[in-house]
């Protein structure tokens, strides 16, 4: 039976109006319960604050959380698409309705702070942060360790979610790790209102503190379903954080090794990677969302933008496809090449018709959406483990072979690789394995790569675009500049 999470009455009261700028910084909005009221109730009944936490998980998939009615405004998975397209690995190969074309694939939003897509990303992640602060404050604040074990688990998840949101803000609004650069405002409790940009090092200090605390608080936590964050998901988040910094590869190696060896996850088999990526119970999935009819998702969803077998834009005329240059680098005997429709000159060329699909496989058929969302897979940890091992002179071949042995018949070619050639192979395999899952943009920045768009893109074909190009990073939005007196147009 599918595990459901829904906004409870209390969670809805707390979260339905959380926004950004002056809207979400009202200290004690009268239509909400106060933190003191929640805290008092939670001391006796953890279900009170658990409902608020479930509300945050619900916000992660809810439409309109970026503050618009746009059909690309549907929570975290929406911004996974932004990242995949900015990285160049996901091509908008046919555009009939125009979603993603000008602002994302033609880079207009990253070059113009008045464009709505800057605001959507900003508003969504700060909304999640504000909501996480509600839970953390209700349980005693940043330094508290709740007395009840259930509340410790809730605190751990809230801190991990807050860290996750700050990390993605850093990804989308900065070019690379620069400790002294003033980048974003930081809000770590409900008393924080409008604030100035702070050094990146300060934001990373909060992210790392949150995740280390979460790992401790979630030790031994047997989550009810994979929608919840457990210790191993928090460890994976922290591994990504250290990887982006680029100077703590031993920690990345240790964290990913623990997830691989002790997390209880199994790599997806060659059959499973052709099985639709539509079921949260898949053993290789670490974190995701079990979607049901109660979630009321349809056209405005990740599936509604990517899957041709859903009532979707992908079916109706906005095709999302693997970059043709990346596709050409997949060996013919690699099972992952079968995930994509081979080139024939037709509409469906290089769409992920055998990677992401509703099990009924009726073109344009699924409505409403009940196929699940994947946020994180254990395959990511094998690839990141290999990447870290290559940086610190450890065995990077074994984790890479373990993964690729499920994808290609002969992995012995890896034995001849070392140095930069090995690093390049790990990066390539990361792009292939995780295509369409929102990780290509992270890998591009972490590896300081260069985008070269293939022939099936609609713009900038063949142009080399480095990871730190202005066009790949969003601008602090106009709304924040207007309503936050500490950030102005002269210092956006």
From TrEMBL:
Residues 100-242 form the SusD-like N-terminal domain. It comes from the Bacteria. It is found in: Cell outer membrane. It holds the Pfam family SusD_RagB. InterPro entries: SusD-like_N (IPR033985), SusD_RagB_dom (IPR012944), TPR-like_helical_dom_sf (IPR011990). Residues 352-450 form the RagB/SusD domain. Keywords: Cell outer membrane, Membrane, Signal. The keyword Signal applies. Residues 1-21 form the signal peptide. Belongs to the SusD family. This is RagB/SusD family nutrient uptake outer membrane protein.
